[in-house]
Amino acid sequence: MRTIVFATSNEDKLKEIREILPEAELLTMGGIGFHEEIEENGQSFEDNALIKARAVADYIRKARPDLSDALVLADDSGLEIDAMDGMPGVHSHRWLGERTYREAMEDIIAKLDGLPDEKRGTRFVCAIAAVLPRTEDAEEGRELVLRRTVEGIVARSIRGEGGFGYDPFFYVPEYGCTTAEMSREQKNAISHRGKALRAMREELLREGLL
Hints:
This protein is α/β, with parallel strands linked by helices and 210 residues long. The chain has a single domain (2-206), classed as Maf protein (Alpha-Beta Complex). It is 30% helix and 23% strand. It contains five helices and seven strands, in the order βαβαβαββββαα. It has helices at 11-20, 45-63, 101-111, 184-190, 192-206; strands at 2-6, 24-28, 71-81, 121-131, 143-154, 170-172, 177-178. Strands 2-1-3-4-5-6-7 form a seven-stranded mixed β-sheet. The termini are close together.
């Protein structure tokens, strides 16, 4: 079974990852002893995902040679709102500041008050980066990175108890509900992270790494 170290400590995210990558032994940063703060100062979701994956891969090379055959995966995700010029974008978490997600969603709903549905477009974006194990032919592991999205509109009120983050106001017209009102199976089938994880899984299978 392939060992994958995923650069996260988010338990909600880990549940989704485990369901989509059942053939891997999944370890977290904390699980391998990595507790440093990683400065995510990239200009894109892809940049930040690579920054995190490289940091964990570098730690493994220096401190955990027993994991030298492990894959390292990291993701960066966020929300883009058309009426706010793509904000909060790569700053989705930092943009919260001291607010809760609910407070941030209420602020956004207020900003978009009066706008028709066609001007309330939004999307969840997820980029996943992989640092592959080093081989005899390459001193540094190869890197893969890809992006997937899911489109929706900003709901006019907060709805649903499931999911996390901005899910309660991310309305998907085809389903007639927010992603917080979906079952875990429904959300995984359409979510940006679910799409990106499945695409990465297919890439790793093609590479013979899973």
